[in-house]
Design brief:
Layout (H helix, E strand, L loop, with lengths): L7 E3 L14 H9 L2 E4 L8 E7 L6 E7 L5 E3 L1 H6 L13 H15 L5 E2 L1 H9 L10 E5 L5 H11 L6 E6 L4 E3 H5 L4 E6 L2 E6 H4 L2
Parallel strand pairs: 7-8
Antiparallel strand pairs: 1-2, 1-5, 2-3, 3-4, 6-7, 8-9, 10-11
Organism: Peribacillus glennii
Keywords: Nucleotidyltransferase, Transferase
Pfam family, one: MdcG_N
Amino acid sequence: MELNPHDLLKLEVSQDLISFNPIPEWVSDSLKKAPYVVVRRASGTKDMAAVGIRGDNRSERFAAFLPFAKIKERITPEQIVENKLWHRSERIHYIAALSALLQVNEIMGKHSVTWGPTGSVGFELATCVPTVNTSSDLDLVIPRFIDIKKARQILKDLCELDVRLDVQLETGKGAISLLEFSRGDSHVLLRTKHGPRLVDLFELQK
């Protein structure tokens, strides 16, 4: 099964998870509220996806594996945008990270770029479980590589929004920061399944 980092996967029960470490009690409680896990940027197996579970606090994060056979539903960041799931949010008018989505959608549409929200914003929109607060950042992913000129144009428009943004650009070899990419430095930090590494930007664009 072809899965990408940030995809949300629905499961039936916490017992479907596989872990080589004891599973904390909060994991079961968290999955009862929202039975979804997020695909991690890590190596899985031919039968299992590497996933992460989020709790109520930042300190509550747990890595595990989920057999493909136990996946009940998959929601990608792009599907959140395609279905404009923010329209069903009752909190969009007073949470900055949510209300900014309308403007982000206009900006990305103007530049003909596919995108999607990740992190707490993506999780809340997909599950309808409140996870975003007034100080939350807006994490975004652009799942297809774009040229540096377009990256700079997008960032220029996004910088006008009144919210902290973290935009990741998928390259096919891993993800890089859109901001770092736009600077045109000779080397950028690439997030891969085997951990972060510094790579030559020219080689990355081949």
